[in-house]
Amino acid sequence: MRLMARLKSLITILLALGVPLTFGLAAQDYYPPPGSPASQQVPVGVATGSVLVSNGVGAAPVYSANPAVTGCYGFDGVSNAICVSGTGTQVKSADAGAYLQVLNGNVEVNSSFLSFAVGGTIDTGISRTAAGALAFGNGTQANTSATLTATSFVSNIAGGQFVSSSTGHFHWTSRGYLTRASDGNQIIQNEALTSGVTLKADALPGVSACGAGTPAIIAGSTPFSGAVTIGTTAVATCTITFNGTAFPSAPHCSGSVETTTAVNARAMGYSASGTVLTIVPSAAWADSSVVNWTCVSSK
Fold it and tell me: Disulfide engineering: 213 pairs with which of 34, 152, 222, 231, CB 3.0-4.6 Å?
């Protein structure tokens, strides 16, 4: 008891003289010593930002600037919790064991449905329908607009629409492109984009200089493929006008007379520019013959 009293007196004198003292307290030093008000017990040599963490069962806690936090926290700590490990974070739900997990840089969803909400109302969802398959739909999974797998994309929209931007294209890897050149005009080209053709189907063509009577373009005709009913009175030439956007270059055209009567068949020559097609038969057509064409230009 005398030794402790003398030691206490010595400490009091040293503190009065302003001598700094440190005391070992289970791997953590304090100044002033334990027994002083808690607000005065400042750790000595602790780095800024350090926190006091457990050092294991039966051991005093220690300060650490980079603590390893593991385990599950919140709610029941099992099915409704945030769990942290050395490699990732997992948010658990009591709903059929579903969870959202960030693990080794990957985001994993252990659920068959991922939903998106605005203002608390779910309006869009992505469903896992099978291994390697996703379905896109509304917030209740009642309507599926499209299904995506490793080998296909299937649209379930009315009419089966595939929509791309006005300047976009569809690309088959290592096989080629289908590109929208302008309204109603499509370009089919190779993978290197060095070779291709333009299909023009943007407007109904017109007809001129195609005989007497009432020569007329067949309904549904396009610059790409169509037909004309020739006029009368020994018609020996017919001119078709390609309306809409011009072909990017003079198209290559061919065709025939649509007939089952041999004497009405004709060999014909086709000459075209980006906007006009001229057809000339080897001999005048029979009155009101139907003559067709197919025209394709380079891209």
Answer: 231
Question: Is residue 7 classed as helix, strand or coil in its secondary structure?
Answer: helix
DSSP three-state, residue 11: helix
Identify which of 282, 275, 277, 273 has the alpha carbon closest to the alpha carbon of residue 292.
277
User: Within 13 Å, how many C-alpha atoms sit on residue 295's CB side?
Assistant: 31
Amino acid at 196: G
| 296: helix, strand or coil | strand
Taking a C-beta distance cutoff of 8 angstroms, is the pair 248, 181 a contact? yes
**Amino acid letter, residue 296:** V
Distance CA 130, CA 190 (A): 34
What letter would DSSP give residue 170?
A: E
Q: Find the DSSP H helices in 182-291.
A: none
Smallest CA-to-CA distance from 138 within 113, 163, 155, 164 is with 113
The pLDDT assigned to 93 comes to: 62
Global pTM reads 0.54
Which H or E run contains 295?
strand 290-298
Q: Please name the amino acid found at residue 201.
A: A
pLDDT for residue 27 is more than 50: no
pLDDT of amino acid 31: 47
Is omega for the bond preceding 215 within 30 degrees of 0, making it cis? no
